[in-house]
């Protein structure tokens, strides 16, 4: 009878140990599940932020391309004006030289 009581006590202790291990495993599983949910929420938030940033960058890229196009057009216009002025100066110099030569030739013949 003492042996039966001892075996019974051993089974009860083993049962208690198994219950504690089961509770610890359940608690660990709950912690892992909670951590997974938190990670999923954070991931969704990060994705939303990244989507907004990508949209912002795309809009900025479009605006920068438009601004670059405008600046390049202005630069081209400025270069054309500069060349036009250079050509005008060159023609003016030629005209003055022509007039001077004409006057010189006229005065040489008189």
Low-confidence stretches: none
- Amount of helix: over 70%
Supply Rg.
46 Å
How far apart are the termini? 159 Å
> How would you spell out the order of helices and strands?
H
Biggest sheet features:
none
The computed structural class is mainly alpha
Note the overall shape. Answer: rod-shaped
Describe the model.
There is one protein chain. The chain has one domain. It has 110 residues and is mostly helical. The chain is built from one helix and no strands. The chain has one helix at 2-109. The model has no long low-confidence stretch (mean pLDDT 93).
Helix and strand arrangement:
Layout lengths: L1 H108 L1
Brief rundown of the structure:
The protein has 110 residues and is mainly α.
Any descriptors?
1 helix, 110 residues
């Amino acid at each position: 009878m003492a042996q039966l009581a001892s075996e019974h006590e051993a089974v009860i202790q083993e049962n208690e140990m198994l219950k504690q291990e089961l509770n610890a495993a359940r608690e660990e599983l709950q912690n892992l599940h909670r951590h997974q949910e938190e990670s999923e929420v954070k991931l969704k938030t990060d994705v939303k932020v990244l989507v907004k940033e990508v949209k912002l960058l795309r809009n900025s890229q479009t605006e920068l391309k438009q601004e670059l196009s405008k600046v390049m057009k202005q630069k081209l216009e400025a270069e054309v004006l500069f060349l036009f002025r250079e050509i005008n100066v060159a023609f003016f110099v030629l005209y003055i030289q022509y007039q001077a030569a004409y006057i010189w030739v006229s005065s040489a013949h008189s």
